[in-house]
Predict the structure.
Amino acid sequence: AENCYRETLKYEEATADTYCHLGASLEKQDRLPEAIKEYREAIKLDSLWDEAWHGIGVCLSESGKWYEALPFLQKAVKLNDQNSEYYLALAETEYKIGNVLSSVEAFEKAAEVDSSNPDVYLTWSLVPFDQGDFLKANEIIQTGLEDMPKEADLYYRSAVYLIHAGYYRESLIQLEAALALDYDAHVQLFEFFPELEKQKALYKIIQQYKK
């Protein structure tokens, strides 16, 4: 993709859109400083190109430069307040800095803009989960399930949070719903349980369901 975009720039007048796509292809290759350079080229051509501001913000955030990333992500949201991905990136960066309230506000806005994006609830729920508030994390997932009752990932995550909270029977109900919707997606459970014994117990339940 990168080579195609570079070829495009040889044969047609440069546009912010082309530079943005080139930046994104570099970002996917984890060549973040190069990606930022191309996103900046897009902004030079069109200072209102929200994707470029978002791209720079995400690259900086992924590099651990959260304070530097913040104004770029805020600018992207200001230019386009109807993109849930922008609010998600902003929310995650605010949380990394320690601005929990601002982070929650951005997550709420993301859910308001796109209530049918499971990533909003999956990412948002990690905030209370990290703080040890497993029931609050599950509440956020349940809010997502109201809009997406057939989203297996949300049921799996609910099962994770309920196990951590000690609600084993309730977690089994969520787990069964998840397995019925998408059996193969159960592998995501194990990243939340590094202890081998818990993994074995979960695997046993999952195998029983397969039978």
Remarks:
- The radius of gyration is 20 Å.
- DSSP finds 13 helices and no strands in the chain.
